[in-house]
Prior knowledge:
about 425 residues, alpha/beta, Rossmann fold, six-stranded parallel sheet, about 45% helix, binds uridine-5'-diphosphate-xylopyranose
Amino acid sequence: MKIAMIGTGYVGLVSGVCLSDFGHEVTCVDKDPRKVEMLLRGDVPIYEPGLDVLMARNVAAGRLTFTGDLNAAVDGADAVFIAVGTPTRRGDGHADLTYVMAAAEEIGRALTGYAVIVTKSTVPVGTNAAVRAVIEKTSPEAEFDVASNPEFLREGAAIDDFMRPDRVVVGVTSDRAKKVMGEIYRPLFLRDFPILYTDLETAEMIKYAANAFLATKITFINEIARLCEKVGADVKQVSKGMGLDNRIGNKFLHAGPGYGGSCFPKDTSALARIGQEHAAPMQIVETVIKVNDEIKRRMIEKVMDLCDGSVNGKTVAVLGVTFKPNTDDMRDAPSLTIVPALVGNGARVRVVDPQGRREGESLLPGVTWMEDAYAAAKGADVVVILTEWNEFRALDLARLGGTMKTARMADLRNIYSPKDAEAAGFEAYSGVGR
Ligand code: UDX
């Protein structure tokens, strides 16, 4: 199959590279000439484990290329994927569809023969129908179908998620489009990964419902964690006990500083908007959004409490600022709420993150970047674990605490335990929900 991928952001680049690895001929298109140049040089603009190697392999095999020329990429393509950004629109929380619609119009003008226009970007219900209408208007003669093919890629594990998905969801309206999509995902179908064909609206809804459900699961356990603290229970064991019930499952039950990232905050807020617009308010999702914000703020109080009520003049070592490990992504990271609050309350904040510095430097003004956890903790009043990077999971706690002014720890990812901290000589330890 010949495929054009419009947009080389996170989703577009990972999808384009992986589809070329399936043996398809993929051209990735981006409007930003610097990005195209960078990709042509073989540099990957984002940090995603394994992506550089996979990209190089498929470029070398001649199946993967990059261009700024949308017309050339769309010419003769069997499928054109739209993977441009859908940020949250300022003011109303709705997904901003400007880029999707602009791409649709351009694709419409560039079509030379039958192609399936596939939306990968997460878009509100009804957008695929709108994409079809735009293309029909732009080029009434064009022969095409639209398809909705939402992505379920976790940052840091995106290649594995693409190559070994729990399911592939494809919304289509014609057999011809279904055949093209079936051909594209044939390597997965052959290995028995489930492919679910639905109508357009259902496919669009599955993405929002899945992400909102996962955000709800996390928020639920975060709320239980708070209650555990009050009643003296241990949320880690509560999660385990709940998760062993197959109907619940053990995933996404880790209590922490609240969910962040490029998907959950954006998609929950867009779903809430869609509900309001259709007079079917998403009350649970609206509450989840509110509770998640409160959870982030509660983490600030936790650190304050550890510092006898005030961080003013105290040195705080923050380990991890990306929204989760194995990514350099800072979008909606809990650190963006927590770190500025600490700085604002007069703390001297030192920060360590294996990948977060490039983006974090401009987003977190007034902090000092350190090389590693030990350097950050030296002479500090408290250490705060915000992201569970592997390199923070096996620290020599006695060594870490030994050089601190006062050995106190806020472990907001529960990667250590009160016992670990006590054995290492920490005078105070505060996890989440235990
Ligand atoms: C998510 C979805 O998993 C993916 O399917 C979707 O398409 C895009 O959004 P991602 O945002 O990359 O992926 O990260 P994910 O691993 O899902 O974590 C999201 C947030 O939830 C992170 O802030 C993480 O720290 C938090 N989280 C996750 C918890 O606090 N507890 C958990 O148990 C799981």
